[in-house]
Amino acid sequence: MSETNIYQQIWESDENQFSVSTRTSSGEWEDETADILLDEQVKASGQR
After folding, report:
1. Cα(19)–Cα(42) distance, rounded to whole angstroms?
2. d(CA 10, CA 17)
3. How far apart are CA 36 and CA 30, in angstroms?
4. Quick one: three-class SS letters along 4-38?
5. Using a CB cutoff of 8 Å and minimum separation of 24, what contacts does 26-30 make?
6. What is the pLDDT of residues 1-29, one digit of tens each?
């Protein structure tokens, strides 16, 4: 079993089934009542 499959199996067997929401392209939360609000950041290139 690969590492990815193990993480997926743990996620699917979670009894609490936490919900995760990201932001839409307009900056609004997809689901602002989600248990986890994931505010993704863009990786900086380090170039000017």
Report:
1. 22
2. 11
3. 11
4. HHHHHHHHHCCCCCCCEEEECCCCCECCCCCCEEE
5. none
6. 667 789 888 888 888 888 899 999 898 99
